[in-house]
Design goal:
CATH class: Alpha Beta
Distance between the termini: 66 Å
Number of domains: 1
Number of strands: 3
Largest sheet: 3 strands, antiparallel
Helix content: 40-55%
Shape: elongated
Radius of gyration: 16 Å
Structural class: alpha+beta
Strand order of the largest sheet: 1-2-3
CATH architecture: Alpha-Beta Complex
Number of helices: 6
Amino acid sequence: MEKTKQNPLKIITNAGYSKKVARLLNQQSNFGTMDHPDITVQHKSDCGDVLILYLKLDKQKITDARYEYIGCRGLEAAAAGLTEMIKGKTLQEADKINFLDVLTYLEEIPPSKYECIHLALNTLKKGTQEFNKEVIQQ
C-alpha cells in the first residue's frame, strides 16, 4: 500500500481546529524562549500539560509574548492565540481576557481542548499576579 503525504494544515482542520488555528500552529511565530523577559511563569494543569509564558514589558504594557509547552496541540493553539491577543495590552487589560475571548479569537477548537484555554489563561493570571506582588514589595 502506498503512503500519501497529507497537508499538515488539513490534518489540523480535520481534527476540529479552525483554519486560523492551523495557520497559527504552522507559523509558530511566538513559540520559543525570550532573552531577558520581565515575566516568566510556568503552570501545570491537572492533565500534566505544562505552559511557560515569557512576557516583555514597557511601563506595564506587553510588548512581546512568547511561550513553550509540553502537551497537546490544543495547548499550543491556546498559547499561540493568547500570546497574539495580549501583545500591546497592559497587564490589567490582559488580565481581563477570558475563556470566551480566546475561544472567539481562535474561532474553533475541539470542545475536548477547552481545558487548554483555561490552562493558558491561568498561566497568564499567575504571571501577572506574581509580577504585581513584586512591584508592590519594591
